Amino acid sequence: MFTKFEHFAATSLMGDPEEAPPRQDGHLHFDRDWEKMAFGVAIALSKQGYYEWEDFRQTLMATIKEWETTHELDDPEWDYYQCWVAALEKVVVASGVVQAGELATQMAQLLNCKNSEA
Questions:
Q1: Which range, 8-22, 27-41, 77-91, is most confident?
Q2: Which of 3, 21, 62, 81 is buried most, with the most CB atoms less than 10 Å from its CB?
Q3: pTM attached to this predicted model
């Protein structure tokens, strides 16, 4: 169940279909576990005050636009959550959550945390 902030964050992305997260039957849709984790991390860090949600949202839209300017619109390489992670990386570095040099290590540890629990 979403808190009020999480509901706001998720629905703020649902307006324009080109900017909205993938959905299936009206619900957020994730194909891979890391997509859910990246989605949750972005919301959690904003909720905890590390950056404003609107800053993330604007960065995500700019990142999608950047991708579109360098690719054909029907490019099979399109991946919404790759853009999501790229935007998240930009925002966490800009807000000082992590330094650019340590970002790759932190992301690898975060995305592989499931493996270390096994």
A1: 77-91
A2: 81
A3: 0.72
- Amino acid identity of residue 94, one-letter, is A
pLDDT digits (tens, 9 = 90+) for 61-91: 999 999 999 988 788 888 889 999 999 999 9
In sequence order, the β-bridge partners of residue 24 are 27
Locus of tokens 């959905």: 23
Helix residue ranges per DSSP H, the chain: 4-12, 33-47, 53-70, 80-94, 100-111, 113-117
Helix (H, G, I), strand (E, B) or coil at 96: coil
Q: What angle do CA 17, 108, 115 make, to 5 degrees?
A: 100
91: CB partners within 8 A, 6+ apart: 42, 51, 55, 56, 59
Alpha-carbon distance 105 to 113, whole Å? 12
Nearest to 13 by CA among 55, 43, 57: 57
List the one residue out of 41, 42, 36 whose CA is nearest residue 59: 42
